[in-house]
Amino acid sequence: MNATPVPSEIRIRVLIADDQRLIRDGLRYIIEAQPDMEVVGETDRGESAVALALKERPDVVLMDIQMPGEDGLWATGEIVRQLPQTKVLLLTTFDVPEYVYDGIRAGAVGYLLKDEDAGALMDAIRAVHRGHALYRTGAAAEVLGRIVRSPHEEPASREGEEMEHLGEHREIGDIAEPLTDRELEVLQEMAWGLRNDEIARKLCISEGTVKTHVHRILQKLGVEDRTQAVVIALRRGIVR
Fold it and tell me: What's the maximum distance between 2 C-alpha atoms anywhere in the chain?
């Protein structure tokens, strides 16, 4: 039995930006086979990705990083700046910490490798469309683990130095209520991937108190999950 078609006005509108025709054709084939998605355009250059996005106003952009002319990181920054409701999901063959870091700074909400299976990629498109952040690669885990570090820990690399420099400004920008010192401590441990019970033991507080702090952190940062909290903390320079 065929699935009931989803009305076009509520389908996820996807723009594909990749300099390899074979990749674009494959992505289009997979996406258009989904009942809740449609491809609204494709391109092989960063500049035209921005122009197409402004014209079509897609919900999600699948963005390659290395393309002729302006690259995908530049295009991501331009799209996010001009179309803040559009979600950019970086899709690349390079599992490189610098790209993850620059992608987060540019405003991408996800970083996936091209060897993801089709089902996982479609789920990722749906997830970022709902407002989630997805950074699943080994390099992404390394970067997210470095974003929030102990004030006494020396950066392990140039990338670490850049992150520490960003963390010198602990203000939260346009968020009215700042994080408390305890919430910043909990956020640090969240960035290292600790569970609530582990955070509780490390900070000598109850697990219930940790849950309360996590809930307040997500509320104050205006995000839905822990990954988003860490990403937004980096972007706004509130951690060190």
Answer: 61
Which residues lie across from 37 on neighbouring strands?
A: 12
Rounded distance between C-alpha atoms, residue 33 and residue 37, angstroms: 8
Q: Tell me the mean pLDDT in the region 155-184.
A: 51
Q: Which of 125, 115, 128 is nearest to 33 (CA)?
A: 125
3-state secondary structure of 171: coil
Please give the structure tokens belonging to residue 207: 């697990």
Residue 193 has a pLDDT of 62
Instruction: Identify whether the C-beta of residue 97 lies closer than 8 Å to the C-beta of residue 159.
Output: yes
Helix, coil or strand: residue 17:
strand
Q: Angle at CA 19, nearest 5°, toward 92 and 94?
A: 20
Please give the helix or strand (H or E) that residue 106 lies within, else none. helix 97-106
Q: What is the pLDDT of residues 124-158, one digit of tens each?
A: 999 889 887 777 666 665 666 555 443 334 333 33
CB atoms within 10 A of CB 236: 17
